[in-house]
Amino acid sequence: MKHNALKTIINNITFKNPIIAASGTFGFGREYNEVYDVSVLGGICSKGLTLHRREGNEEIRIHETPSGILNSVGLQNPGVRDFIIRELPDMQKLNTVIIANLGGSTLEDYIEGVQLLNETAVDFIELNISCPNVKSGGMAFGIKTDVAYETVKSIKQYCLQKPMMVKLSPNAENIVEMAQACVEAGADSLSLVNTFKGMAIDIKQRKPVFLNTYAGLSGAAIKPLALRMVHEVCHNVSVPVIGMGGIYTVNDILEFIMAGATAVQIGTVNFSNPVAGKELVASLLQFIEKEGIKTLEEIRGIV
């Protein structure tokens, strides 16, 4: 059986397989490409980009938890313009689908970022609506359904050259209503879930571990919750869904696909096992060959 048995199509873009490196866990692919040939991956999501350069949060950014990590990196990134000039040319050489993850603190920032990315070689724009809206007191764009709808609808008017994937926060008031609203507003596909809001306390210093008190929880600990949300969303929208959240093994990938996901993103596992992407692609191919599965469509959404 050939590798094209894993071929996956999202919004008319062909991925060689459904395994994508998640934003914020893979840089721009350069460092991991020194460890293994990342062209084996279906795609790579860039670090979270903002219109202007960000230095990120001070003090502790990563804190290990049972079966996961808390992170408060603060979207450290070079800014959209520097990404286009300095990072994107190297990403293009990696021979895989390029997804630019875009965040913003204002609607205007998102729109300008989209307009810049429209003119580049990126294949997708993944809209991160978990960012705090500074004009609305810091609440994320992706918490309240009506706010998310208006945000996505406004940005979509400027995102016509590239498919727009909207990344959903599990902290949304209602994940299914949020997904439906984003699709109605123009999302071409959805990715979920982003990190869960969590906390850790330093009992010796008697204060929160993170300067911002709360942080994002990812890793194996969130997988059952993420899987449930992906399953719910897949049964209530008609666009492709990319599932993520605590994926470590090929069994995890298969569960998300059986729940209805068109593809998956792997994140935290890249930190504990830098060659996870390569191993998971090989394991997925081995599984479908052993089971006599000709295409992933045979098992997608069967649960």
Key terms:
20% strand, eight-stranded parallel barrel, 16 strands, alpha/beta, 9 helices, 303 residues
Structure description:
By secondary structure, the protein is of the alpha/beta class. The chain has a single domain, classed as Aldolase class I (TIM Barrel, Alpha-Beta Barrel). Helices cover 30% and strands 20% of the residues. The strands form 4 sheets. It has an 8-stranded parallel beta barrel, surrounded by 6 helices. Helix 4 packs parallel to helix 5 (175-184). The two termini are 25 Å apart.
Q: How far apart lie the N and C ends?
A: 25 Å
Biggest β-sheet: strands ordered side by side in the sheet? 3-4-7-8-9-10-15-16
Strand count, sense and barrel status of the largest sheet are: 8 strands, parallel, barrel
Secondary-structure element sequence?
EEEHEEEHEHEHEHEEEEEHEHEHH
The proportion of strand residues reads 15-25%
| Count of distinct structural domains | 1
